[in-house]
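User: I'm preparing a small set of examples for a lab meeting where we compare how different chains pack in three dimensions. I only have the primary sequence for this one, and I'd like the structure in token form so I can line it up with the others. Please keep the answer compact; I'll paste it straight into my notes.
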Amino acid sequence: MIVLFIAFVAFIVAAVYFSSLLAAQRRKEVSDWGTAHDLAFSPAKDCTLESRFAAFACLRSGRNRYADNILTGKWSDRDFLSFDYHYETTTQNSSGGQQTHHHHFSAVVLSSPIPLKPLFIRPEGLFDRLAGFFGFDDINFESAEFSRAFYVKSPDKKWAYDVIHQRTMEFMLGMPSFSLQFDGHSAMAWRSSTFKPQDFEQAAEIIRGILDRLPEYLVQRQMSQP
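Assistant: Understood. Below is the structure token output for the 226-residue chain.
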């Protein structure tokens, strides 16, 4: 029993040590990438993002939610924010006990001087195609390739069509895939996993590319809103 207890304690100590090494390595790679792009880095936990960006449902999943490894600054004259995000969920095992699951993902948020209406875009999956078969469809576009590649939702279909025109569809099809959400004066790109350093740049660039391709008539219309 004593040997098993010592082995268990040693395993826990090793796991904690290895976890701390991985966390330190993550802080360094994010910080180094941020320094290379003139962005300020903070490793501190921030629990305010879910209230600052209340429209973004991905920030309200689970419990014990917080961001860390935060980068802030400017990206093509837009306010830039990126972060790693953590939340927890709980499931019940076969013996009736509870098991806690830790979830981690990364995201980039760019500001928009143009007021944005709600719009949600993500890579389309198998279940989306099955839902479409039963009539629970997302917004479809003239480009069959784009419609197969992306799931798009918005309470205002005209807004979705105005934002995602032919040039934007071609641009998005040539870029790495992210989940995207637009609302108010912010646009977010994220995945369900932690970004590699180059993913931060790709996420920022896909947001910038979509915003830069907004038609002039749409920009003028949104800027004239009270």
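A couple of notes for your slides: Residues 14-18, 129-136 have pLDDT under 50 and may be disordered. The chain is about 40% helix and 30% strand.

User: Perfect, thanks.
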